[in-house]
Amino acid sequence: MNISFEELSDNARVWIYPSNRKLLDQEVKEILVLFEKFFAQWTAHDKKLLASVQIPYNRFIVIGLDSDFQSPSGCSIDSSVHFIQNIEKSYKIVLLDKMNVTFKQGAYLVYKSLTEFKKMIKNGSINKKTIVFNNLVNDVREFKTQWETPMSNSWHSRFLNK
Predict the structure, then answer these.
(1) How far apart are CA 9 and CA 1, in angstroms?
(2) What is 88-127 written as a DSSP string?
(3) Are 17 and 84 in contact (CB under 8 A)?
(4) Which one-letter DSSP state was computed for residue 60?
(5) Which helix (H) or strand (E) holds 34?
(6) Bridge partner list, 16
(7) Mind giving me the DSSP string for 64-77?
(8) What pLDDT score was predicted for residue 42?
(9) What pLDDT is attached to residue 68?
(10) Of 27, 126, 131, 136, which sees the most CB atoms within 10 A?
(11) Residues of the chain with pLDDT > 70: what percent?
């Protein structure tokens, strides 16, 4: 079942899929409709799941799941990953490659490989104040407070002194 993201509790689970490119407004609308249909039939052990999606910056697909309502199963998580894979194919985007980093550079969002990101740190293009997107947050509370954060407050900081 689909609810608005704002209705999810702070302990609702989240999965974040960064896109390798900015989605067009029309693509965002289409993807949101696809998610509405997916959530209508998404279940765990034949019980409906209460979920939501948002696409901040037209760049990230953020799925929220109220696990207090119904916990996901391995099969339900697998079905969501297959759904994401279908979106990748349909829109010719990359969402599942975890070896990339998205960060802010001025008013722009930049998507780079981890290797390129480390090089940018070494050459001083990126520093501890650079705003990064920590896509490893686990729940809505962390999403609200730790997702978009200075690099010094994120797992990305491990690359600062290397």
Answers:
(1) 15
(2) HHHHT---S--SEEEEEETTEEEEEEHHHHHHHHHTTSS-
(3) yes
(4) E
(5) helix 25-41
(6) 62
(7) EE-TTT----HHHH
(8) 84
(9) 67
(10) 126
(11) 95
How long a stretch of residues is the chain? Answer: 162
Taking alpha carbons only, the member of 100, 59, 58, 80 closest to residue 13 is 80
pLDDT for 1? 65
- Could you tell me the end-to-end alpha-carbon distance of the chain, in angstroms, rounded to an integer? 46
User: Is the full-model pTM beyond 0.85?
Assistant: yes
Q: List all residues 6 or more positions away from 89 whose beta carbon is below 8 Å from its beta carbon.
A: none
- Quote the radius of gyration of the chain (alpha carbons, Å): 16
- Read off φ and ψ for residue 83, nearest 5 degrees: -60, -45
pLDDT in tens, 9-60: 999 999 999 999 999 999 999 999 999 999 988 877 777 878 999 999 999 9
Distance CA 58, CA 135 (A): 15
Question: Which residues neighbour 61 within 8 Å (Cβ) at sequence distance 6 or greater?
Answer: 16, 17, 19, 31, 53, 55, 84, 87, 95
- What pLDDT score does 131 carry? 96
Interval 62-67 mean pLDDT: 90
Mean per-residue pLDDT of the chain:
91
